[in-house]
Amino acid sequence: MGLILVALEIIAVAINMFYAPHNVASGGTTGIAILLHESFGLNMSIVVLVLNVAMLILSYFTLDKATTARITFGSLLLPMCLAITPQIKLVNDRLLAVIVGGAIFAAGVALLYRIDASSGGTTVPPLIFKKYFNLKPAVGLLAVDGIVCFFNIFVSGFEAFFLAIFSSILTMVIMNYIETGLDRKKVIYIMSDGNLDEVQHSLVTLMEKGLTVFDVRGGYSGDKKQMLMIVVENSEYQHILNQIHILAPDAFALVYNIAEVHGGNM
């Protein structure tokens, strides 16, 4: 519960201190609230509350009860966070506000996803589209947020529209990076027709960890080969790769970026 409150407050800070003061609605019920506040002077927290309750009712009748229960807490608490968070223009430049606000907003939403929670609102329609039309939630959410972004044109002009689209893309990229882990590493697959024991021994000494050589079969040729898989920190990558080229210049190496490693002593 504490982490949910922290995440919702992070979202509220992004809205009230970066998006709303510059009249940029980048999607979601908070985006709709910004548009209605700018057009008619409606209270943003009340608008978000009304829309979230409407989405909860829709979820109750169209989705399973477990999903409705999971989004109820965030749906009701986000308006409260918006109400108690002061609306302050921290930066005067709109582009900078969108960049910083998008990063903060992404951190809040990603934290909710990490603890299997949600702020409700426009996350409901994509789930409905998924259930009844087999449309991917990411596509459905992009469509819903795209409509909200489009209305920036009529309320605040084309500049706000383009900033809203930019913010949505930025938020999506940052969320994806946070959700898949911040401690990035590289995995290197070393394959050779020859013997990799010398490479293994040298890398074990260099990296101070156990490494195992596997007997594999070439997918194209069908020939028997040896393969060594190692996981390294980004800071170690180039040094380890240089050593591999020295120890086994004819070896075939594949390198991938990975987000997380579980188990073992990696």
The helix content is 55-70%
Placed side by side, the strands forming the largest sheet appear as 2-3-1-4
Biggest sheet overview = 4 strands, antiparallel
What overall geometry do the principal axes of the alpha carbons give? elongated
Strand tally: 4
Order of helices and strands: HHHHHHHHHEHEEHE
Radius of gyration: 25 Å
Strand content: 5-15%
Runs with pLDDT <50, length 5+? none
- Report how far the terminal alpha carbons are from each other: 32 Å
Question: What structural class results from the helix and strand content?
Answer: alpha+beta
Total helical segments: 11
| Mean pLDDT figure | 86
Would you mind describing this structure in some detail?
- The chain is of the alpha+beta class.
- It is 62% helix and 11% strand.
- It has helices at 2-19, 28-40, 44-62, 65-84, 94-114, 124-133, 137-150, 152-155, 158-179, 197-207, 234-247; strands spanning 185-192, 213-217, 224-233, 252-258.
Set out the fold topology:
Blueprint (H helix, E strand, L loop, with lengths): L1 H18 L8 H13 L3 H19 L2 H20 L9 H21 L9 H10 L3 H14 L1 H4 L2 H22 L5 E8 L4 H11 L5 E5 L6 E10 H14 L4 E7 L8
Antiparallel strand pairs: 1-3, 1-4, 2-3
Helix pairs in contact: 1-4, 1-5, 2-3, 3-4, 5-9, 6-7, 7-9, 10-11
